[in-house]
């Protein structure tokens, strides 16, 4: 291959490497391997050419970056939560908004359907759950379901189930985002119908003060998991300048990081549901827990990523 053709074929790739630096260790390694392959080719066929000196300089600079990254691996855990994950969310805010809006619309549909069709709640929640709740309402404790199970067993069961839901919402994104949207729709319908059920019986405020102690974190995490699934799904639908397989690989990696970042949220939500929701708390305490949970979600997943990336 002539030198000019070699340069023309790879110029865009080199410019992207040079103009869009990354601190992601996997991406940095992939770029370094690609660059050294090009350098090896240039040294073989154009040993004294400018392109060889150019590639040699870029490869040396990237090698220093790799060595520096190795020294920083011990702080990778902290860096993941304080920089890498928030930066990823910053670039995912559009899909997070799509996930939240879609889930909200589904909640509204579930609410309206339950209000206009008395059988709808039974269709969604099941006869057994509805009958049990009606019986609890007669006894004066409509949300007694949260106080019947062993706390530790309930904690592990709920936490593992919620993490499973998040991973399913992510993995379902492989079906061109349709699977993720379907799961968001179902969960939104269920939440809307559930709240309408209590509203019709004059217990909406009671249910909010009880359920949203853990539900603020739990529902927020499900919506964010939807964002992870859409990230992977959109990487298939809209590969941009990458090959579809390379775009999918990147999207899957980003989505998986988002889901992993949700695990502590689900653990805390499981703890609240198992140990706190069952308690009869003063309304001000319930509102405080709900408010702090909402504030954390808004700060860590929206405000902090914006501030972090504006400062860079």
UniProtKB/TrEMBL annotation:
Residue ranges annotated as transmembrane are 95-115, 152-171, 178-199, 219-242, 254-272, 284-306
Keyword hit for Membrane: yes
* Top-rank taxon, per record: Bacteria
Cite the Pfam families for this sequence.
SpoIIM
Record keywords, A-Z: Membrane, Transmembrane, Transmembrane helix
Name assigned to this protein: Stage II sporulation protein M
Q: Which source organism does the UniProt entry give?
A: Fibrella rubiginis
